[in-house]
Predict the structure.
Amino acid sequence: MEFIEEWFIEQTLGEGAFGEVKLLVNKKTKDEVALKIINLQLHPDAADTVRKEVQIHKLLDHDNIIRFYGSRKEGPIEYIFLEYASGGELFDRIEPDCGMDANKAQNYFQQLINGVDYLHKLGIAHRDLKPENILLDGSDRIKISDFGFATVFRIRGRDRLLDKRCGTLPYVAPEVLKGNYKAPPADIWSCGIILVALLAGELPWDKPSNDCHEFMKWKTGDMCCLPWTKLDIKALSFVKRLLCPSAGRRITMDLIMAHPWLSKKSSGLGTKGGYGIQLAKKIASGLNLSGREDDSIIHLCLSQPEARKEDEVDCHFDQSSNDHHRRNPIFSFSQPAGERVDDFFIGSQLGSQAANTQSPPITRWVKRLTRFCVTTTLDKTIHEVTEILDDIGFQWKLGNSSGPCITVSTVDKRKNLLVFKAHVIEMGNRMVLLDFRLSRGDGLEFKRNFVRLRERLSKIEWKGPMTWVM
Ligand SMILES: Nc1ncnc2c1ncn2[C@@H]1O[C@H](COP(=O)(O)OP(=O)(O)OP(=O)(O)O)[C@@H](O)[C@H]1O
């Protein structure tokens, strides 16, 4: 569909709380642009957020931040033109419970820090840093996106305290839940949680508050448990400084940049697989294994945030104490564009170069890990999947959203609601694509269940190279 002269809407890239993101491709030059479309008539509460997002995003110009190309309003529809990140979300590179190779994690984390440091130097806080908001371009370069919660914290050279309680609970810093917090340490905390997700493939806690057992254990310095035992000693020592519960004692940007874990050449990062329980006991008993003064692992800050009422806070929240602006819980639900079958570009060998701007559409490829093909008919696939879901004890319902779609509802190990959808797409030649997307809940828990279902379907999973089947 032609959007403006010579620019065609090629596919839907995803869906956010307030609208859709489409890929625009120039017919002649093959240039690509991501187009965020927000219908303010449908989401009148988004107007302020979108205005602020545009105001802030247009100020930014950095390699590790999604470029802002412009915006346009037509009636109630707001269009935002952004750099297209063809590599998908960082979130999709994290293997549940495993994370990723430490060298890879270091590389991504370094880029993330470069981007966040740039923002902070401009006096801007992101306030919703998480792997779902960190995109990758075709060269595996980190691109920080989604400035919906961003704010200016430095005005005429003076830093102001923030008080809006916003972000995504597992990534949010403890002081944000209390109100009146400094912007940079809060973003740094979120980076620390992202690093844990990259290295361990799981999040350490639901929220950093006194009623959360895992967080309380961390505060007392007990690291003889997951995910900490999966981290090697250097990484753990670094994470300890990023996740210092006292904002005032948390590591600063300059010290992050100079930290041995980040400045070490890849070979010095230690083994992946963790320091193990024996070492954990030594750490917990106070032995400083790093030999560095500032790396003493037992010196966790013990200041405790006051208990607060958070009943109304959900997974992704925004609670303002002053402006009475409040968003509903938001869950990113990236919808497969079922309206056109060529919205699905799948492949396993194309690699990142496949996504470069020179590629013809057919090789343009979104690297999403939560999809695979099975070699059977559509009906049989639905039957097999739903039988497994019954066997596991998941609730499901079969619907139709541009093709059959199984919505699965369950609770995760922390008793939080988890809802995901499996779109079932016939590819021809007895090949069916199962495309799983998170609707609500913790992304890593979703992935854990995806892996579980995939294992159960391994007998019919297509193991060969994934090429486009017309
Ligand atoms: N510039 C982009 N390039 C490629 N894909 C993008 C781009 N921007 C967004 N997307 C995709 O579209 C999805 C929706 O993006 P959007 O910014 O609207 O919302 P979100 O970040 O998921 O959620 P929310 O605003 O609800 O927190 C993203 O999850 C991402 O997968």
